[in-house]
Amino acid sequence: MNTTSDGRRVAIAGVTGYIGGRLAPQLLADGYTVRCLVRSAAKLAGRDWSDNPNVEIVESPLNNPAALENCQVAFYLVHSMTSAAARYADEDRTLALGFAQAAKTAGVQRIIYLGGLGETGPNLSEHLASRREVESALASTGIPVTVFRAAMIIGSGSASFEILRYLVERLPIMVTPKWVSTKCQPIAVRNVIGYLAGALANPTTTGHTYDIGGPEVLTYRQIMTIMAAELKLRPRVIIPLPFFTPKLSSYWIHLVTPLSNDIGKPLAEGLKNPVVCRENSIRPLIPQNLLNVQQAIAAALVKIAQHGVVTNWAMAGPIPGDPDWAGGTVFRDSRTITVNAPASSAFRAVCRVGGGHGWYAADWLWKVRGWLDRLVGGPGLRRGRRDPERVGYGEALDFWRVTGITRDRRLALRAEMKLPGEAQLEFEITPIDDTHCTLRQTALFQPRGLLGLAYWYSVVPLHHVVFRGMLNGIQREAEKEIP
Question: According to a count of CB atoms within 10 Å of the terminal CB, is the N or C end of the chain lower?
């Protein structure tokens, strides 16, 4: 690590998340050295900018002063979200306090934080109240904190955008909670990045709090109408009902959109609060072209159509360690096939699994399994994938998560569907020569109790259809590349 103090070196906590993953390349383009504080460096391995010579990747907890040494400014973009409001609020407050103390010890001169827009007082949702607590925690050691408060962020892959898009796409008639009449001032993700990056170049923003939003104040109902028009869909029929609670809303969001009710509940709670800028003092300080809602939605849909989604909501958060396959009962289904194509072709075919491409065989069975998973609170298949060709460590592939990737050699996936046990799916490629390779596909399952045993034996008869079919499909896909 470079130990020379440099005003152009900034740290980002939360760089693997939705905003952090977009802010880092912008700061690099602006000429800054970016220190990325991460739980696992592997989560940045697939980013186009991670091998930039001005990137410093540090694996460290947030309360470690050494990770912040020689950084004058630190961005704090960390936010946890679970179904138990008290738990995520406590965790966020603890993390922020630890980070603030570490920053103080390391000599950081300024912290920049992205929080949530909303009214103050007792009516604030627990989700937004937690954001306010984080603001206070970051300022607790006396370091000046620049706070930006944003409402709905519209951008390809954001949680708010995905909720909106899926509701409008899937429901021509919507029976909705009464929050569809709540006023909101959305902001395009490019404008959020513009404010965060612009604050570095404008020291007068130090220690101040700013509301940031786009040029329009609309209800969620009006935003849905704009989304339908941009998707070239008929106007949606929206019927608000007063008895929808945040908990019911979260289940509704879970069933229709890719987001789980763990994330849906805090978001739904926040929708009860009007989120409108009370002041616009940031605009003359960091001038930029603010996109309206129609422009922001159109830009996001273009990115999706062009497979240009840089980050999405599912990329953030910790990745559990691999289960201890050495202990207890572990079932294994391993199959091998020879591929008449180079290892690179086989690897590319493997990396196309999931999302719109499907799983090469018995897609109807995968869809049934996805629906069953959604019904019991799992992610199902709706998370899809960020890019149709490329995958990176930590990314979601439907109801799997990438936990290991070695180019042209290996892809390991960990199951995140609801299961009575732990499951992993691994693909290993071994070159034979320049034009041939072997592909080994291994499914591992460690059951929990009798229910786990019953689950494994109930699905074994389907393995020949699903796993053998997948292996053959990958072989065909790889060999299609050979003239």
Answer: C
Are residues 350 and 439 in contact, defined by beta-carbon separation less than 8 angstroms?
yes
CB atoms within 10 A of CB 14: 23
In this model, does residue 390 exceed pLDDT 90? no
Query: Can you tell me the distance from the alpha carbon of 338 to that of 353, in angstroms, rounded to the nearest whole number?
Result: 19
Tally of CB atoms within 10 A around 242: 6
CATH number at residue 409: 3.30.530.20
In degrees and rounded to multiples of 5, residue 67 shows phi and psi of: -70, -15
**Residue 205 sits in the same domain as residue 347:** no
pLDDT digits (tens, 9 = 90+) for 391-448: 888 888 999 999 889 999 999 999 989 899 889 999 999 999 999 999 999 999 988 8
CB-CB contact of 300 with 155 (8 Å): yes
Which letter, b or e, does each residue of 122-156 get, where b requires 16 or more Cβ atoms within 10 Å of its Cβ? eebbebbbbbbbbbebbbebebebbbbbbbbbbbb
The C-alpha atoms of residue 113 and residue 147 are separated, in whole angstroms, by: 5
Place of tokens 């383009």: 29
Average pLDDT taken over every residue of the chain:
86
Cβ proximity of 71 and 108 under 8 Å: yes
Grade residue 2 by pLDDT with cuts at 50, 70 and 90. very low
pLDDT at site 82: 47
pLDDT average, residue stretch 146-154 = 93
